[in-house]
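Please review the protein record below. Let me know how this chain folds according to its tokens.
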Amino acid sequence: MAVQLRYMLQELGIVLDDTTLKILVILEKKKDVPEEAIAKKLKLKINETRKHLYKLYEKRLATYVKKADPKKKWWYIYHWSLDKPRIQELFFEYKRKLLIKKKKELDAERQYAFECPACKTKYSYDEALETEFNCPSCGALLEPSKETVTAKKLEKEIADLEAEVSKEK
């Protein structure tokens, strides 16, 4: 999960260091986690833990609740949780960007309208027209290009992404 989350955040321009990402994973597993518990689990000093937690807070990936410490007067314990609506918003933003990228890849794949049956080189319509539909490499007659495996795969990925993005609304 951490790798997927890191990749998704990087794609969106949100880069987190390893320690902050580990904290994010801890918060994913449990809600209202005291910062002392996080520090203990990761073997960090409390101030260092807070520094990483504030990074998550600044990026609106985590929220906290301040509670009075029953053991110490005038002392507070901060309990941290993931900001799940924000994470979900980022997830859909990531999916929308990925959808745009896949559509561009499909358009690029489809630009090749002709193919040489001998050397398997692909040509756009304009390129084929310039050579009078003969392969410039081997001279064979160009044939209309068949839909490639890559194009079919991209079409499926696009359909899946569109279904996911439509669930957002």
In short: The chain has two domains: 2-82, 99-168. The helical segments are 2-11, 18-29, 35-42, 46-58, 84-110, 125-130, 149-168. The chain has a mean pLDDT of 88.
